[in-house]
Amino acid sequence: MSNAEKSMVKDVVKNWPYPTLFAHRGAGNSAPENTLAAIKLGAAHQYCGFEFDVKLSQEGVAILMHDDKLERTTNGHGAVAAATIAELEKLDAGSWHSAAFAGEKIPRFSAVTKYLHGHGLMANVEIKPCFGREIETGKQVAEMCVESWQDRHVKPLISSFSEIALEAAHKVAGGYPLGLLVTTPCEDHLPTLEALGCVSIHGHHESLDADTIRFFHDHGYRVLTYTVNDIDRVTQLLAWGVDGIFTDEIDKMAKRFPACLLPTGKPMMNEQTNEMNWANAVPPMP
């Protein structure tokens, strides 16, 4: 990375711009995942941070989709990577959830970025490549993030379980915040975090404790966790100083932790030593 890119990364780590609570896959359990309807519903619950998955159609169009196959979340069949964008856009991606969302479409990533920008919302873009398309997907998603967010103050947090995809994204979007997704964060992940210029590590909440969060904070990395749907567990994680929480229970968490929906410019804090006055924090311009 250039010195300018390193400075960008350090600034994100120091002055974390994102909210603590993110709506998982748009609106968690409340709407069909990875759809524009989900993000709209999450926004109606006052979320300003949205996590969603991006992969590519057969010809390389970026869409929101988690699975490699179409069956679970659409009325289609077969591999996503084998379907053209024209075929994908004909599918119903809402009826599987409930009749209220019948006819909801698979959205293009480009359409979602326009909605986010129009409403001042923030994104955690998870690169979710189909097998064998890690480099292609990482590169294209990163290129689209750079193009779409180049004039925005707060850049998207780009994350992935795929180190190959993250490496490809890093080459394109050096200086943009990257997050490494793992199951159990540990010391062994430090070389990868450093090599990729990551700002954060994202682990399963059951693998986290106060010592683990403190360890990564001491090494200059933010800690985010998925997917937390229990109020008592969120309370515990907040007490340990976790930086971001992805939840499916958007309504319940919004009512219990409304201040955690706000962007704050949250400074790096060590375990349990500081209390942030969330209500008076001034959000940055998205």
Give the tally of β-strands.
Answer: 11
Question: What ranges have pLDDT less than 50 throughout 5 or more consecutive residues?
Answer: 268-286
Order of helices and strands: HEEHEEHHEHEHEHEHEHEHE
Distance between the termini: 24 Å
Calculate the mean pLDDT score and round it.
92
> Looking across the biggest beta sheet, what order are the strands in?
2-3-5-6-7-8-9-10
The helix count comes to: 10
Radius of gyration, whole Å: 18 Å
Structural class label = alpha/beta
> What is the approximate shape?
globular
β-strand percent reads 15-25%
> Which percent bin holds the helix content?
25-40%
The profile of the biggest β sheet is: 8 strands, parallel, barrel
Topology (SSEs and partners):
Elements: H1 3-14, E1 15-16, E2 21-24, H2 36-44, E3 49-56, E4 62-64, H3 85-88, H4 109-118, E5 122-127, H5 134-149, E6 157-160, H6 163-172, E7 178-181, H7 190-195, E8 200-204, H8 210-218, E9 222-226, H9 231-239, E10 244-247, H10 250-256, E11 266-267
Parallel strand pairs: 2-3, 2-10, 3-5, 5-6, 6-7, 7-8, 8-9, 9-10
Antiparallel strand pairs: 1-11, 3-4
Helix pairs in contact: 5-6
